[in-house]
Amino acid sequence: MKVFLPLALTLATASSYSLQLTGRTGRFASTRLMSTPTYSIPDQPARFAKAKVENNSRFLDIDSCYDPSYLSGKRVALTGANRGIGLSLAKELSAQGAKIVALVRKSSPELDALNPEEVITGIEATSDSACATLADKIKGGPVDVLINNAGYFYEPVEMISDSSLNFSEELKMIDICALGPLRVTSNLFQAGLIKEGCRVAMITSQGGSVSWRTTQNPSGGDYGHHMSKSAANMMGVLVSQEFRSKNIPVTILHPGFNKTEMTKKYEKIWEIEGAVDAAVGAKRVLHEVGLINMERTGKFINCEDGLEIPW
Questions:
Q1: Which of 104, 101, 150 is CA-nearest to residue 123?
Q2: Which of 30, 96, 235, 284 could cysteine-pair with 68, CB 3.0–4.6 Å?
Q3: Cβ(224)–Cβ(158) under 8 Å?
């Protein structure tokens, strides 16, 4: 069972932290305070409640700030485009005139109906050989944006205490969620399909934040999911560091709480925690993709509110 901090306590803690910073003296303290990022709130219900109290349009109405004009005519490579949030991303990309390069294990009628510029099938994220031949199948040249979205979620909550750990599923999640996007990114870069100026988005999860586990998982558990997302975050940061000198920005994104088949087991708390339709979630993600630049490279961003998530 999830246990969350009350909103008042969360805000009080944040206020106390600010006071501790402002209590320092000298120019170093001033610089430190100015450079300290504004973090999102780990308590999901409190985060949603705060947004409603503040009438936060960025959180509650993404259309109020979303400008998709940058997508028109751009080649966007998207993994996992055949279903879930990936399909919603594909639909929004299509609506905005982007040239979709869908990278999937297999297509779907919904994806085919969008008439993507290219649909590359047989892309198994856990297969070195499948990912190694990926670039050979892409015929349209370099991409302007790469969105590594494909993932895997083992639904049962794993606990040591009830002997429900599933090590093979844990390894599968790590392989798909962390090594999968690394395989794809590496192959596209080596083939010259990712070049200077290309934006790379790694879709991971707030579940990969180690510091947020004490709030979001006070009883532990869910080992494979959280380890895989934490590993994916590490991968994203390391790629951002390697690509920094090549002027290729990489941002790690938590897509927010979206109403998809993958999250259906949480549907009882969808409304309490501010879950949104996947179409809205797609706009949130693409809003942040539009903001990717070298100043934001390597950052872990919550697409719900646009704030950073601590590691």
A1: 104
A2: 96
A3: yes
- How far is the C-alpha of 133 from the C-alpha of 255, rounded, in Å? 28
Query: What tens digit of pLDDT does each residue of 157-196 get?
Result: 899 999 999 999 999 999 999 999 999 999 999 999 999 9
Contact 182, 235 (CB under 8 A): yes
Lookup: tokens for 219: 């009883």
Closest CA to 244 of 198, 197, 294, 189: 294
* pLDDT over 90 at 70, yes or no: yes
Q: Are strands 199-203 and 75-79 parallel, antiparallel or unpaired?
A: unpaired
Rounded-to-integer distance, Cα 112 and Cα 61, Å: 29
Q: Give the CA radius of gyration of the chain.
A: 20
The answer to whether 303 and 281 are in contact (CB under 8 A) is: yes
Q: Which structure tokens are listed for 216?
A: 């979001």
Considering the entire predicted model, what is its pTM? 0.88
Q: How far apart are CA 247 and CA 196, in angstroms?
A: 5
How does residue 35 score in pLDDT terms, banded at 50, 70 and 90? low
Closest CA to 182 of 240, 102, 255: 240
Are the C-beta atoms of residues 24 and 32 closer than 8 Å to each other? yes
Question: Is 217:226 a contact under the CB 8 Å cutoff?
Answer: yes
Decide if 72 contacts 244 (C-beta within 8 A): no
The answer to whether the CB of 290 falls within 8 A of the CB of 70 is yes
Q: How many CB atoms lie within 10 A of CB 8?
A: 9
- Say if residues 202 and 181 touch (Cβ distance below 8 Å): yes
Residue pair 45/53 in contact by the 8 Å Cβ criterion: no
The SS3 assignment for 215 reads helix
Helix axes 44-53, 7-22, angle to 10 degrees: 80
CB burial of residue 213 (10 Å; 0-12, 13-18, 19+): middle
